[in-house]
Structure formats: structure tokens, C-alpha cells
Here is the input.
Amino acid sequence: MMLGLLLARAGVHVTVLEKHADFFRDFRGDTVHPSTLEIVEEMGYLDDFLELPHQKAFLVTGQIGETTLALADFAHLPVTCKFIVFMPQWDFLNFLAGKARPYENFRLELNAEVTGLLTEGERVTGVRIKSPGGERELRADLVVGADGRNSLVRETAGLESIEFGAPMDVLWMRLSRKPTDPSQLFGRIDFGKIFVMIDRGDYWQCALVIRKGAFQDIQSRGIASLHADILQMNPFLSDRVGELKTWDDIKLLTVQVDRLREWCKPGLLCIGDAAHAMSPVAGVGINLAIQDAVAAANILIPAFRNGTGISIETLKKVQERRELPTRVVQRVQLFVQDNIITRVLDRQGRMKPPLAVRALGVFPILRRIPARLMGLGFRREHVAPIAAG
Ligand SMILES: Cc1cc2nc3c(=O)[nH]c(=O)nc-3n(C[C@H](O)[C@H](O)[C@H](O)COP(=O)(O)OP(=O)(O)OC[C@H]3O[C@@H](n4cnc5c(N)ncnc54)[C@H](O)[C@@H]3O)c2cc1C
Here is the structure.
């Protein structure tokens, strides 16, 4: 949607295809980081965006054993919005779609599932679409696969992916929130468990990190055993843990971390999760996808404008621009997965924060480092004047 909007603003004819009837579906992460907010501001939409219902987090806090610590403080970031916004992805996507709709050269087709690629020799020349009206073909100068971690586009194109593996999966669930609850509680690490709670106003969006593949085992122990695990971490939830009645109330995120070797071939480019599925560590998947979209727009718009077609060299520039930040973030995520999360999940009993984490609590200046990594990431993209509309 973001790339579609940026291209439309620059006068490029663009069709965004979405296989679902709308953007409303299961929770897929709600974090809009400061760097994305900066992009929204550069596009001139920030005031409108902040009118949508959302929560703000200025500080990331965590509790390890009995010690509560501030881990990241966004107050010093060199951006307008020194906070993370929590907003459902469907609201963000609908917002972008609303901004794109007035452009005559923009089309959003819902209920339009891409089922295959059209090719001429080596070149991708369009897509096959299945919609309620039947099957048809759509030809294009460029196809962008932004179809997520199970991308059909990348698979059909035969683009090879490097899998990095992950030691954990995540169970997502909702519990109601009361005005008397602690505010801005984020992560709790104790008793060999990691439990994250995100304040979403009248409910908590909760995540329990489990060992990879352990969900079946947890299910076989019964939902009461899951309740007990949650209460061991957060006893104040005892009056509402029963809201999790069946396993239908729990959503399993099978964590995968991968990256394409080549993000493009003639006529085709992959971005976002389709090019690189991220670990949930630090919740940066949305952010990276948005940064890819902005980088792609900045590179593609001049090429569209000069009218000589989109060459493979132009497409490779997008990968060259975005591969390094992706690699760096994935490297950090894999380090955290393999050295911190694995160790926590292997432990039993009460835990204490390690020295490096305690230092964050003692020296506030140190909290600027995780805030910068999480809030801005590495190599920020800016909306070039040519894409600014
Ligand atoms: C449970 C969960 C929690 C997460 N939590 C966070 C978080 O807190 N913070 C964060 O930053 N990231 C989070 N993520 C990751 C984040 O959602 C992704 O990194 C991000 O959405 C990637 O954006 P994308 O546009 O590349 O792909 P997606 O958001 O996956 O979008 C792909 C779109 O393509 C559509 N599509 C797929 N196949 C086709 C087809 N064949 N034809 C037409 N349309 C198709 C899909 O319906 C979808 O709308 C989470 C993910 C999950 C699953």
C-alpha cells in the first residue's frame, strides 16, 4: 500500500491487488515506529494519521525477575514523534488506501488473488488474478511482490531464500485491561518464560514466547495449564485469565527468519516480508517493509518518469539499498534469539537481570541506544521530493 501510494502520488499508474475482501484480519502486530511516523510526516499526513485511535509509548519497560527496568527511551530521538504508536495494521492500511484513492492513476482491487505470473522469456510481464468475477490477466511494466512471508510471487518466480531458523514461536492473545492496571508494562522475563503485554486501551495484547514447535505439547496439557503459566508471570490477571476459554482464543505465530538471495528478476521486485521475513524480536517487521517501500519508490519513480522501462539494474539498486539494513537487523535478532531467548527458555525458577541490562536502569543515557535501534533502525529512508507529491 505504501509503495502504491508513493507511486500514485508521482503520477505512475499503479494497481494494488489484495486477496482478501478488506484489510481486517487477525492481529499481525500493531507497532508504528518513529521512523515510519517520520515518513508519514514527510508525506504531509501526520496530523490526519494521529487523529486515528491509537496508543503511544514513550518508554519501553521490562521486568526481569523482581526488577522493573526502563529499557528504551525515545525522548532523545531526532524526529518529530518521539514515541511508538500502537495502531491495528488494518487502520494504518485503510488510512493509506484512503490517501491513495483520490489519484485517478491509482486502483486498489480487493478480493483479487494473484495465482501466477505472466512471463515472456525471462521477463515477468504481469500476473494472473482470481477474483469473484472469474480469472483474468493483468499486464504491467513491473510486478512488485509485497505479498508477505508466504509470498506466492517469490515462490512462483523461483527466487531462492536463505532460511536462518528460530528457536521459538509466539502465542498471541488478548486479555481485558482495567484502569487500575499497571501502565506501559511491556515484557516480563521470569521462571524460564517471556511474556509481553502491550497496552491497547481497553485490552492487553499479550504474547507468550514458547520453544519452537511446543504448541502441541502446551495444548495437550490443557488451557488451565496455560492460565497457570500466565498467572505465574502476572498474578494481577487472575480475574480475567479465564477469558481465554479455548485454543481458538490463542493465535500461533510460527516464527521464521529468512531473506531472498536475489530480490528481483527482470520485470519483478520483492519487498517487505516477501523479500525478508523478520523475527518478532523488537517488532520491526512493519517498519522494514515501509522503509523498503520508500526506497523502492525513490529509485523507481525517476525510472518510470524517463519512460525507458524498468531495467534489472534499477531493480537491483533497491536490493543494494535495503539488503544491508535488513542483514544488520536480522543479525541482531538472531543474536538475541540464540543467546538470550534460548537461554531464558532453558532456565527454571526466578531470574535476575544481567549486568548489561541493569546498566540500562542505572544510566538513562544508555537507554538511547536500544531506542535508536528500535525506533529508527539502521539506514533510514526519506520520501524524496520527487515522491512527495
Ligand atoms: C502475529 C504477528 C505479529 C506481528 N507483530 C509485529 C509487530 O508487533 N511489529 C512489527 O513491526 N511487525 C510485526 N509482525 C510482522 C509484520 O506484520 C510484517 O513484517 C509486515 O506486515 C510485513 O508487511 P508486508 O507488506 O511485507 O506483508 P504483509 O503485511 O504480510 O502483507 C501482505 C499482503 O499481501 C496479501 N497477499 C498475500 N498473498 C496474496 C496473493 N497471492 N494475492 C493478493 N494478495 C496477497 C495479504 O493478504 C496481505 O494483505 C507480526 C506478524 C505476525 C504474523
